[in-house]
Structures are given as C-alpha cells and as structure tokens.
C-alpha cells in the first residue's frame, strides 16, 4: 500500500507542532515513520493499525513514562505529547478511519544483532541496563500486563503439545528434555514475585553505539510491545537467549550479562539457578514457533533460516550446561553451591586436624614453581615429550616438594588443552590442585572419611594413570569432593565406587612414570565443591580468564593438607605493578604497544607467552629472526659464557669465522667487516666511513627513514627529526621523496617511475654542494620500513647509486630490516634492486636478540677510515656476539628459513590480496617474503590512522602481535620470525578478516541505526 508521506507530515505538524520530513520504516501492520524534524531532532512517528486495541499501546506509552520518571538515565525513548498534551491521540487517516498515533524519540546507535564485535564489557553493560529496567518497572501496573500470549515464558508450556511439528526425532527429544526441565522448575517459578518486564530484549531491540575503538554503550532498549507480568528472571533469561547465539564464548557472554544484571538488581541464588533452564525454554519456544510458522508459510525461507542459530546453540555439546549454575553464581559472587559457605567454614575450622595425606607434616616441604615465569618446563610449550614429563621439576628434587595451586604452567602443552583451532587460541594453563612430589610407591592416607566416587586408570598420554575421587560430607550433610591423580593403578583392584574409606586409611600409593600418565611421581590433589558438569572428567587446569569460576568450584585445597593457603597459592608477577614501576622510573617516551599492554615472559619460535601462559602469535618481531628461545642460540651462548667472553683486541677464531660467514653472503667487492652493538652504531660508523672516504659531510636520504637513536643517526632519520618536537633538519642533510609508488608522486601505472623517483636525487646533491657541505653519500633503508613497508620500483636504487657515485658519494644500504633472508627471494634487499652498495649495515636479526650490529664495506673505504686512530667498540665483536651472529646465519641456512620466508610470504600475500578485494578499508597490500605491509584507508582513500590503531589492538585481542607504521601510522607491518608456519599464516588471515569486517561496520556511510521500531523478533533490516 502506498502511504501518503505528506499526509502524515501534515498530521505531525498539526497535532504535535513539528515540521519534519518523513521516511517510511518497516512494520507489519502499523505505519512507522522516521521523522527528521527541522528542529534537528529525529522522531519516530507510530500510527497504529485501524482497529488496534488501545490498551496495549497505552501500556507501552505509560511504561515509557513510568521508566522516564523512575530511572531517567535508562536508554528508553521519550514519548512526546501533542500540542494538546495527549500522548496517544486518535487521528483520522487518509480514508477517514481513526488511528491511534504516538511520537517517540529516535534513539541513536545500531542494533546489537548487527553490531560487531560484541565485547564482553558491552554485554555486562547490557546486563546492567536490563537489571535497572527491571528495578524501574517494579511498581508499574497496567491491565495489559496480564494477558495470555505465546511469548510469556511462564506460559511457554504450550509448546509441549506442538513438538510433533518438529520432524527430526533427535531435535524433538532435545525439546522434550527442555520442556521437562521447564516443568520441573515451574513450581519454583510460581513462587517468585511477578512484575512488569520488558520480555523481549532480543538482539534487534537493543541499540548500541560507540566510535571505532571506543568502548561501546547500550544506547537503546526498544519495543515494549511484548511486556507482561512475570518473574524478572524471565527477562534476563530471554535476553540471555539472544546474547549466547553464535557467540564464540557463549558461557562467558551469559556470565557477563548475568553479572551486569546482578550489579543493578541483586539476584538470589535461587533466581540464578533458573536462568539456564529458562533460557533454553525461550529458545525452544522460539524454534517451535518458527517451525509452526514455516508450516503455515512454506514459501518463506526466512522462517527456517532464522531458527538456525538457536538450533546451533541448543545442539552445541561444547556448552557445559551442568556447570552453568555454578558459573552464573560465581559471576554474581554468590556461593557456587548452596552448601559452599558451610564447606569452607568446615575446612577452615578443621585445618590442622585432617589426617595427613602422606602421614607426615607437609609444612616444611619446600615449594617448587613450574610457572610460566619461573620455569622452562617444557622447552617447547606446544609439546611436552614423555622424556621431559618424567623429569619435570627435577631441579626441586629428589626430595619431597610441593607444586602450587592456581599456578599458570606451560606443561599442559598438548592440543587437548587448547580451546580453539590455533596454536595461539585460548588455552587452559592454570593448575587447580596442589601437587605433592614424592617417591613412587609412597602411600596416601584419606584426610577424612569418605566414600569412593570414582576409581579408574586413565591410560591416555600424560593423563592421570590411576585416579580416585572421594566424596565427603560435612556434619551438616554438605557434600564436597577430593581428587587424587597419578596413582599406581593397582588402586583399581582394591577400591570400587561406593566403598567407604576411613579417615587416615591408606587407600592408594603414588605411581611411577610408567603408571601415572608419564610424569615424575607426584599426586595431583584437587578439591571440588560440586561435580555437576564435571562428573568423572574434572578439569585439572583452567583457562586463566575463567578463574572467577574455577577458584570457587575447585578452591585451594590447602586446608585439607593442614597447610596455610598462602604457602601453596601462586601469584604471578602483577602486571599492573610492573606498569607502575615503568611509569615511575622510565622516561615517558619509552613507548608501550597496545591500549592494554602485554607482559611477555616466555617464547618459542614465533610464539610468545604472557605471565598467565596465554599464547600470542608473534607476527611483528623481526629481531628473533630464527625464532624465540632457539635451542642452538641458547647452546652457543651458554657454551661461550662458560669459556670466556672478551673483545677484538685479542685473537679468537670466532671473529674471523663470523666475518667469513657474513662475507659469504655478500658480493666480492665487500670484503671488510666492522662489528658493533646495534644498527644505530653501525649507521654512525657508516657516516664516519663515508666522510673519511670522501672528505665531505653531506648526506642524501629518503624522507621518513629511520637509522637509529644517536645524534647523527637521528639527523639522517626524518622519521625522528621531522616529527613535532624533533631537532629539525641539519644543513648537511637533504631529503628526497620516498619511492612509494602507491601514495607518492609517481604511481604504479607509470613505467618511468623508478627513474623519476631517482631523478629527485639530482637537486638534493646540488643543494648540498651549493651549501658547501659536499656529498659524502646516500643512505636508505633498502625497503623503507618505518616509511610504510615500501618496495621501491625495480631499478630505483641502481639509478640513485649511479648519480651518487658520479657526484663522488658513497652508497650505504641499511639492511637492518630487510637482510638475512626475510625477503624470501633475496638474501638482501639490494639484490632485488640489482644495486651494489659500498657499505651494508646489518642489525636487529643478526643477533636474534643479542645486541649486535655489523658493517660491511670495501677495502678502499676501510683503508680511508684507517687514518691512525684506533677503532674500538668494547662489546662489538665480543666472542659471544661473534658466536651468536654466526649461529644465526648458520641456522637460516640449515633450517631453510629463507625458503620458508618465501613460501609463507607468498601464502600471506595471496591471502592479504583476497582481503584487499573484500574489505574497502584495505587500500594496498605490498611486500616481499615476510616483509609485508597492509595500507589501511578511510572510505575517501585518505590514510586510515584510526582504523590501523583499531586493527592492531583488535589483532592483539585475537592474540596476534602486529605492528603499524607509515608517516600517518596507517600501515600494518607484518614481519614475523622466519619460522612461521602455514597454520599461523591461516590464523593471521582469519583474524584479520574478522577484524577488518568490524571496521566495515564503522564506515561513516553505515554509521546510523535503521531507526525502525522493531516488532517481535526483528525486521532484519538494519
Ligand atoms: C632500518 C633501521 N636501521 C637502523 C635501526 C637502528 O637499530 P638499533 O635499534 O639496533 O640501534 C633500525 C631500528 O629500528 C632500523 O629499523
């Protein structure tokens, strides 16, 4: 039906006194308009269908007035009165039929369903809004609230008779279970007070706003059309039912929502326990309802499609419903079981009185830490070989020692501990027990009387071997449990479930590594307050981000060991304290990456680990060229430090061996090496050499370059001296435009661009000569890195070098970023260009983290520098440095890392090109091998600085470290260690795809809500 916009615009003018331009919004039966008024305000004008029952509309209008009065801060739309002061006037439509109409404030934001990402803190805020809404609606009364309708969850039992409509028997059975669980809680629900609730906080009725990278806020909760009177917990369960759908971590999302709700409107434990069955019931009602609608409208595919997320969730076995009650209670700081507080009190009261687990006092037994920070077990945090497991912690033995509770460890290395597909996915690291390491065969005595709950032999790789779970009870009858892992499996022959075990009875003994899953002999002693959702398969370690739950479900078992809690409770280094110390004692311009900095304490190849054992894929750091913690580097360093470490004033074969190795990678004319401590020092030296050789001072260098942090190095680094607050340009320096054929003066479609960029050197040389500086040389990062990962057009450098040499200058190639095989196809960047430098500067990767710089040059230049004054760098060319430097270059060869750089680089490049085609914010993808740049742009093509910052931070949320560069800091810099593997490349591409899609959502063109007042389950429009 065509609608006369002018007619309703006139109505708006006449009845409400607002001049506005109307746009039609969706609506099944009613007319909805977005009214953009000349007063600058946007309204939503709602004209109800003819003959609509006024009481339900009246209920909404009154409810909004009520909320506005009771809790004016809540994000509900205001209702505006007519000129006559009415809120729900009757207006004759074009046909003369009377229609009820109302005018609402139009709230900002986009609907939650389309908002991407959906961070946990937003979900917590949503919970708060919902909780506060519940409070605000508490006293609201209206006749419309007490009606019979299918979306009143209390009346949801109607689906029981409709399950036959669901064809799949497994799904029918699943729904029948849900209906049954609902019937079981129904009597309890009936006892709860009823009040007005929103009843439809689905993801299309929640509006969200927040600029790119800013925290998101709930900007609207709309559509009160389904309000009814019910226990408030139904409101939370309904909202939860939408929040969990397709969420990557639905349990955490629901816990966040409930935590937020609880903060605004205290929940009782009884209410919290009802959430999970109610949530599932809501989804059951939803799928049954749409199944019935599909029967009625077989033509409408949307009806079936819209059910899919709910089915996916209901059928997802990975979500642990059994543990949900404990989880949600823990999120609300409520006791995880009804008896939890009494159990704690009991344990506290009897600390010191339990029978000693090993028949001896443990208080003098020393602690041994296997934590991420303190331990290097296992060397490879992605693989725990049996050989290492059998020796784990041997440095604390052979006498008795104790392992910490709540200690993050890397010994849980196998993929089974990962919670996602990637090596850097979340992983369970935190030990939930206390370990007692003692000789195999040592007997264990029951700390208190018990009944055997589980006894079995788990023979899996690094599993428990023999394991016993005992069931205990306090005198008040509250149950709790203890688990003993890594036992001699003979226990299975002696005990069976249900057997009583007397206090102090010897019930098992420690297994050896052939019996106990493969470990050094010890018991894993864990306490649990419930077995719900854990049954026999208790997690012995938890995700560090889920400790709010696990500390409650599996508390510190110290009391049962007659030990003080502190003795066995592990506290990692406090990141906040380290940050504070840094702020107190370091300069403010010692910058930290990321809004929320990472503290990294372990590494292996191209992965790093924080203090909690969370893994990060290192796609940024080029210094650990052959990988973090390379065993060969460790070995040569340790070996050399055992022998001696001195300087170049004495002969040592390591010096010449390193020089030979470096020179074997160079063209013949480069014959002399200088060893220094850093890239900076090497560049300083390069300037001295060039000046000694030419007798001139002037240097030509591309703009935005970086060569180091000392006076002269900064003077040739426009990236530093030209920044606000920089020292400015020295009169012996001339800048030329970077040969950037994406953004620069000459673009990729210009076949002459290499020569045209090179020609810019002519006026620079002339300027230096005119100023009397003369030309000492030209220095450039072969491929400008801080300038934005730029690959100059082929032929650029040879053309520049020709001009420089013609003017008497020396050509210096800074290969700190590009050298040593990173480029895949070439060992050095100048090879790509077909250029022959006179001086090559190497740094960063050549020491794999050990401070080392190398300068390589010709005999002639070295001779010019040899003017009788000694050259000496105390640490440059130390025995240790030479051993390490050579080892790095050997490893690159031995492990085929240059070749790997080429293959992985190609794979990355192909994937990045696909992302460029898919995402408008990717302007350019460039690079070579594992030296890659992704230029991010705004919709107008300008540098996407904010986008880049956002992407970098979000990639860190996905546990991928990536850098950013460029004059406007809008280029993602990808330069992982050369060890990176195909699955890591896939992870980078997958995560980048996710994050770039989020950026898409922030594009200004899409930065508005649809403005629709949604009816029921969303219109699918915004
Ligand atoms: C191209 C280039 N040259 C020189 C340096 C300075 O090296 P260093 O920090 O080891 O002194 C850097 C450091 O980032 C660099 O990227």
Could you explain the architecture of this structure?
- The chain is an alpha+beta fold and 1022 residues long.
- It contains 30 helices and 38 strands.
- Strands 12-13-15-22-19-18-17-20 form an 8-stranded mixed beta sheet, with no helix packed on it. It has a 7-stranded mixed beta sheet with strand order 27-33-32-31-30-28-29, sandwiched between helices.
- The protein is flat.
Task: List the keywords.
seven-stranded mixed beta sheet; 1022 residues; eight-stranded mixed beta sheet; 34% helix; 30 helices; alpha+beta; disordered C terminus
Secondary structure: elements and pairs:
Elements: H1 5-16, E1 20-25, E2 31-37, E3 42-47, H2 54-70, E4 79-80, E5 90-92, E6 98-105, E7 110-111, H3 120-136, H4 169-191, E8 195-197, E9 206-209, E10 217-221, E11 228-230, H5 232-243, H6 250-264, H7 269-296, H8 301-305, H9 308-314, H10 324-331, H11 340-350, E12 367-368, H12 386-389, E13 401-403, E14 430-431, E15 434-437, E16 443-445, E17 450-458, E18 465-473, E19 479-487, H13 491-494, E20 500-501, E21 506-509, E22 522-528, E23 541-542, H14 547-553, H15 565-568, H16 575-585, E24 600-604, E25 607-610, E26 615-618, H17 631-643, H18 653-664, E27 672-676, H19 679-694, E28 698-702, H20 711-715, H21 718-721, E29 733-736, H22 753-759, H23 761-770, E30 775-781, H24 796-806, E31 810-814, H25 829-833, E32 839-842, E33 853-857, H26 859-865, H27 879-894, H28 897-918, E34 922-928, E35 931-936, H29 945-957, E36 960-961, E37 963-965, E38 971-974, H30 982-1001
Parallel strand pairs: 12-13, 26-36, 28-29, 28-30, 30-31, 31-32
Antiparallel strand pairs: 1-2, 2-3, 3-6, 4-6, 5-6, 7-9, 8-11, 9-10, 13-15, 14-23, 15-22, 16-21, 17-18, 17-20, 18-19, 19-22, 24-25, 25-26, 27-33, 32-33, 34-35, 35-38, 37-38
The structure holds pyridoxal-5'-phosphate.
């Amino acid at each position: 039906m065509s609608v006369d916009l002018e007619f309703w615009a006139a109505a708006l003018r006449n009845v409400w006194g607002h001049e506005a331009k109307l746009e039609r919004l969706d609506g099944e039966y009613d007319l909805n308009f977005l009214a953009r008024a000349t007063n600058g305000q946007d309204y939503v004008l709602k004209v109800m269908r003819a003959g609509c029952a006024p009481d339900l509309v009246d209920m909404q209008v009154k409810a909004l007035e009520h909320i506005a009065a009771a809790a004016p801060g809540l994000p509900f739309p205001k209702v505006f009165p007519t000129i006559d002061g009415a809120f729900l006037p009757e207006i004759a439509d074009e046909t003369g039929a009377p229609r009820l109409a109302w005018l609402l404030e139009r709230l900002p934001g986009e609907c939650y369903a389309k908002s991407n990402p959906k961070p946990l803190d937003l979900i917590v805020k949503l919970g708060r809004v919902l909780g506060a809404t519940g409070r605000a609606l508490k006293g609201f009364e209206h006749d419309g609230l007490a009606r019979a309708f299918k979306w009143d969850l209390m009346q949801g039992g109607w689906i029981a008779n409709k399950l036959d409509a669901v064809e799949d028997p497994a799904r029918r059975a699943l729904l029948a279970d849900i209906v049954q669980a609902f019937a079981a809680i129904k009597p309890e629900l009936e006892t709860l007070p009823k009040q007005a609730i929103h009843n439809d906080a689905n993801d299309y009725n929640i509006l969200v706003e927040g600029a790119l990278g800013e925290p998101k806020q709930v900007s609207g909760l709309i559509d009160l059309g389904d309000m009814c009177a019910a226990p408030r917990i139904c409101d939370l369960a309904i909202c939860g039912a939408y929040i969990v759908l397709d969420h990557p971590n639905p349990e955490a999302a629901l816990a966040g929502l409930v935590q937020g709700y609880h903060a605004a409107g205290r929940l009782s434990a009884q209410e919290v326990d009802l959430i999970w069955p109610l949530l599932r019931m809501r989804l059951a009602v939803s799928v049954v309802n749409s199944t019935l609608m599909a029967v009625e409208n077989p033509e409408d595919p949307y009806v079936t499609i819209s059910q899919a997320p709910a089915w996916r969730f209901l059928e997802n076995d990975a979500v642990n419903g059994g543990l949900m009650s404990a989880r949600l209670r823990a999120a609300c700081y409520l006791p995880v079981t009804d008896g939890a507080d009494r159990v704690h009190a009991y344990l506290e009261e009897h600390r010191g009185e339990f029978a000693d687990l090993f028949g001896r006092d443990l208080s003098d037994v020393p602690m041994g830490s296997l934590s991420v920070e303190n331990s290097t077990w296992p060397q490879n945090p992605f693989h725990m070989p049996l050989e290492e497991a059998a020796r784990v912690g041997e440095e604390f033995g052979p006498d008795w020692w104790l392992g910490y509770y709540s200690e993050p460890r890397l010994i849980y290395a196998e993929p089974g501990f990962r919670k996602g597909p990637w090596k850097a996915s979340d992983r369970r690291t935190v030990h939930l027990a206390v370990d007692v390491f003692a000789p195999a065969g040592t007997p264990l005595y029951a700390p208190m009387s018990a009944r055997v709950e589980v006894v079995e032999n788990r023979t899996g790789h690094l599993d428990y071997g023999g394991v016993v779970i005992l069931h205990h009870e306090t005198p008040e009858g509250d149950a709790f449990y203890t688990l003993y892992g890594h036992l001699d499996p003979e226990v299975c022959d002696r005990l069976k479930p249900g057997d009583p075990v007397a206090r102090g009875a010897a019930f098992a003994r420690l297994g050896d590594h052939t019996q106990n899953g493969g470990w050094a002999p010890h018991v894993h002693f864990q306490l649990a307050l419930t077995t719900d959702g854990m049954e026999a398969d208790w997690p012995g370690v938890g995700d560090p981000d889920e400790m709010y739950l696990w500390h409650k479900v599996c508390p510190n078992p110290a009391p049962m060991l007659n030990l003080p809690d502190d003795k066995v409770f592990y506290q990692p280094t406090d990141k906040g304290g380290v940050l504070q110390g840094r702020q107190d004692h370091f300069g403010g311009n010692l910058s930290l990456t990321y809004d929320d900095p990472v503290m990294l304490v372990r590494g292996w190849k191209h992965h790093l680990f924080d203090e909690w054992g969370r893994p990060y894929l290192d796609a940024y750091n080029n210094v650990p060229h052959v990988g973090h913690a390379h065993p060969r580097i460790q070995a040569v360093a340790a070996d050399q430090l055992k022998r001696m470490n001195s300087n170049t004033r004495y002969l040592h074969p390591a010096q010449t061996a390193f020089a030979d190795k470096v020179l074997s990678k160079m063209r013949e004319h480069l014959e002399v090496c200088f060893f220094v401590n850093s890239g900076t020092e090497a560049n300083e030296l390069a300037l001295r050499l060039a000046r000694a050789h030419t007798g001139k001072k002037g240097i030509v260098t591309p703009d935005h370059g970086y060569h180091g942090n000392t006076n002269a190095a900064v003077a040739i680094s426009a990236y530093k001296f030209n920044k606000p607050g920089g020292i400015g340009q020295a009169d012996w320096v001339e800048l030329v435009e970077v040969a950037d054929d994406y953004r620069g003066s000459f673009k990729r479609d210009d076949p002459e661009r290499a020569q045209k960029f090179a020609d810019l050197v002519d006026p620079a040389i002339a300027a230096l000569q005119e100023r009397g500086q003369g030309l000492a040389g030209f220095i450039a990062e072969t491929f400008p890195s801080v300038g934005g990962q730029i690959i100059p057009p082929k032929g650029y450098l040879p053309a520049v070098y020709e001009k420089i040499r013609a003017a008497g200058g020396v050509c210096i190639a800074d290969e700190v970023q590009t050298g040593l095989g990173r480029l895949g196809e070439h060992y050095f960047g100048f090879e790509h260009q077909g250029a022959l430098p006179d001086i090559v500067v190497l740094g960063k990767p050549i020491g794999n983290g050990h401070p080392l710089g190398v300068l390589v040059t010709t005999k002639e230049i070295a001779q010019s520098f040899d003017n009788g004054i000694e050259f000496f760098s105390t640490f440059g060319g130390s025995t240790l440095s030479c051993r390490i430097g050579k080892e790095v270059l050997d490893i690159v060869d031995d492990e085929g890392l240059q070749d790997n750089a080429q293959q992985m680089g190609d794979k990355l490049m192909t994937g990045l090109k696909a992302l460029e085609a898919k995402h408008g914010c990717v302007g350019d993808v460039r690079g070579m091998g594992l030296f890659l740049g992704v230029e991010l742009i705004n919709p107008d093509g300008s540098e996407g600085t904010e986008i880049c910052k956002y992407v970098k931070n979000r990639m860190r949320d996905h546990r991928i470290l990536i850098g950013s560069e460029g004059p406007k800091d809008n280029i993602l810099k990808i330069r992982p260690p050369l060890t990176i593997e195909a699955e890591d490349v896939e992870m980078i591409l997958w995560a980048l795809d996710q994050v770039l899609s989020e950026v898409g959502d922030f594009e200004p063109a899409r930065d508005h809500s649809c403005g629709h007042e949604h009816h029921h389950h969303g219109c699918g429009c915004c």
